[in-house]
Amino acid sequence: MSTIKADVYGDSSGANEIDFEYIINGGLTGYGQCDDAGTSYGAGFLNVSSVTDYGANNPTKGFNFTNDYNSVPHGLIGWVFISEWNGADNLLYSNSLNADLIAVSIYNSAAWIDTYAAFQSTGLLA
Amino acid sequence: MTSPLFQRICWAKENLKPVHSKYRVIFEDPDNFEGPMMVLVPAPEWMAMALHGGLLPPIQAYLEDKAVTEAYEREHGSQEGFKWSENGGAKHPYAKPIGPMTEEQAIEYLILKDIPSRVYEYQGNRTILKIVPVELVPTDRSYRDAWTIKQEAA
Hints:
Chain A has 126 residues and is mainly beta. Chain A has helices spanning 43-46, 115-122; strands spanning 2-8, 18-24, 29-34, 48-53, 63-65, 77-83, 90-92, 101-108, 111-112. Chain B is 35% helix and 10% strand. Chain B has a three-stranded antiparallel beta sheet with strand order 2-1-3. The longest helix of chain B is centred in the middle third of the chain and has 18 residues, at 59-76.
């Protein structure tokens, strides 16, 4: 069982605080919280056109966006990337600070794992 | 008046079911043949938008924007620090959307959009880009960094 936790705190007011916890392999569970108003968009998923798997030593730099996130009108998009193949590998990008939504994706090269739907059902991105 | 791309993406979230592609794109970087093969995985939500039509901008809009970002990357070594507000603004969010694509057309579109141009413009003898069925991508990643594109005998 791999447990992944990420806590990100935004500005000093805490308005952009994001807490995130997820357990992989031992069961498809997740918990997330994003206090910003943009949580209802869920476009972090839909705004990704593809993911490039660069290899075992560089698995986390591959998101390609449909709408370049620098020009998304609702602020920055943060995302958590969890690679299915090693579970413990996660990255909360620095631009998640002040993000108004968080995208979570679990996949490997051969298949997207549909866990993002589970995340959505928890309310994180619904 | 056409709604901006981001609004169309939000509409797709509410109205389209994800479509899992049966294809993957494998490619190598001509600037780094020593590196592992890369695998491009289409996002199911994006594929749903491509097949539906009326949502995605023409590929030309992305290519024009990509030319700007790649020029910045060549000049600065990376895209770090790049801002559209300082580079004329992105065209793709406001371009008029195109009609539906087949899955194969969508994959070709995605290659142009999400893979560096130096890969698909490569003129050498080595095969560095292929569209493959998802079944051909190994699920065992034990030797992931040793993956390469098989070169056919001349």
